[in-house]
Structure formats: C-alpha cells, structure tokens
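Risk register update: the risk of archive-format incompatibility is retired. Evidence:
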Amino acid sequence: MFVIWNLNIGIYFMRIGIDLRSLQEDNIAGIAYYADQLTRALLKADQDNEYFLFFNSWHPIRIKDFGEATIVHNHWPSKLISLLYLLRIHPGIDKKYQLDLFWQPNIHFIKFSDHVKNIITIHDLSFIINKSWYSLSMRVWHNLQFVKNRLKSTDHIIAVSENSKDDIKNLCNIKDEKITVIKSGFDFQVVNPYSGNEKYFVYLGTIEPRKNLAGIIAALENIYEQHAEYRSIKLKIIGGQGWLNRNVFCKIKQSKYSANFEYLGYLPTKEKNQLISVSIALIWPSFYEGFSYPPLEAMIAGKDVITSSAASIPEIVANKAIMVDPYNIKDLEQAILIKLAGYHNSLSVEERGEWQELYDWDDIAQKYLEIFNKFK
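Archived output:
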C-alpha cells in the first residue's frame, strides 16, 4: 500500500480512486446522480486521504468542479478501453497514480493491480433477475461483466438496500460479512409550484420495461372508460428515453385517450420538482428496484405515492404509500380510484424534514469512510 505517515497524529493516508464514468452523460439521474452527490460529500468530509477521479472518453466532456481532487481524463475511446480491460491487456488503472483503494459507484469494466483494494456499490441485480427487461446489447454488456465473479473477487460490496443485499447473497453466493448496506443519500429542492388548475398524476423515471409505464397507461384507460368524471385528469411522464420502450409510445399514440398522456422527457430539477409539487400523486408501480428515488421525491414534496410492493420499494416508503401488485392492473386501478376519492396519507411538513435527514449525503459519506478506513 502506498501511504503517507503523519508523525504528529499517527495516521496512514490513502490514495483513493473513484470511477466517475457515469457522469459523462449530459443528463444526470439515477446512478450518475448518486455518484456525483456522494463523491462531493466524500471530498467534503475527508480531509486526510487523497482522491483521484477517473473519467474516460475520446470526445471532450464537461467535468464539473470537484475542488482539490485530481481529475484523470483518459482519452481512449470508451469501447476500446472497455475491451482492453475485458481482455486484461490494458495496464491496471492504478499504476500511474499508485492507488491504495478504488471505489466503483456501479459495476463497469476495470482492471487493478493485485494490491489495490476494490469496493463496489451494487444498486440492483435486475439484469440477473429478469433479462427481458433489457435490450440484447445491454444483456451482452452485463454478461461480459461476469458480475458473479467480480463480486466474489472484490474486497467489499456496498448494497443500497436490504433487498439488494439479499439478492447479492442469494444470486451470487456472497457471504453476509462481505456486504454492508448503506442506503443512498437524497435531497429535494423545494420550489414554488406552478399555478393553474390542471389536474394530473405524474410518472418519473426512465422509459424502460422494468418501470411498468405500460401498466399505468392501461389502468388509466380503464378508469377513463368506466368513470367519465375522471377523463380530464392527465398523466405527465417525466424521464429520459431508455430502451425497449417502443410499445409504450405506440400504446400512447394509439390510445383513445392519447391526449391525456403527456411525455415531457428529461427535465431540469427545478421544473421537475415544480410539476411534482402540484400533481395529484406519483404513480410508480415498478416491477423491481434496488433503491427508489421517485417515491422519495414525491413524498418529500408532500405528495401521495401509488407504488409497487415489490423488491426494495416497501423498505423505502415504509407505510407512507399506497402499495399495489405491479402485475395486477386491477389492483393499480383501485389504488388510483382510492386516491381520486380523496385518500390522503402524505407526509406532514415535520415528517418531510425527518425523512430528509434520514438520507443526508454527509451522513452517507461518513458511513462510506468507515468502510474505506478499514482497508488502511
């Protein structure tokens, strides 16, 4: 281990690398949001260790200010360097910078020297649980990661929920003591809501099969057919286009009530939060999640949530949401009708503050540092 010994306080200082390739996209959401926020909290909390932030792109990229951390921008084409890492040809990423520990906020192609301690965060194993949720190219990408072998060889694994930890243990045969659960941080920027009388539900998230947007559309169509008084209520769909979503957009286009389904795409944080703040509720019946940002966003905004009883979601929302079986359209219909009939279980102002504290990024960073320091 490359260390610096401080004679005054007797502490080893490490050189820590962080994989920030997820931040190279223009739209920051999901894992990229997690990596960005937690890295900043780590740099703020840790005044002892030295940090190196790794990016890789053949093209110029916009790298935000990370203070005194060393930015390492490798200009190899991403596909080429991934291939070299896969074939174990490219030198270990730590060589030039004499790293002691490397943290990956998500699984990605990488190569280290044997002495470097490796910590990886696993958000979910949906790509193992149901391959049909992913495109062919994504399934190939996941297969080439050899996830089960990677997790066996890594020094420590951080799971973002108890559900994800159980999946890692059961699907990858990993011992309990090798996994630590540290829930994601989260913050919600309170904004002045839009004015207006439009009534709508909101869906927030990438447009992909796992999110069950097609189920929301089907449930609302049935309600429109059976309850004319609700036909003016819309669904605003917020999120980037993911994969295997052609059937969703075809379903919207062909619907008798297509005007009620408004796709807004990816929105800046302020505009997104304004729309959430004046919605009737969030509808989010995902089939599977390792962690769940959208329900938290709606709950902290003081809105009700209709969501799924699957995977980690009950763990996140506790008893503060209407829970449904995501595979049962009738169940979802009934939940929507219950909300439209006046059901209210949203967080009070005091509760919103308490929930926000549960997901404080500074606290999450301190928990990570405890894990990092075990490898000094």
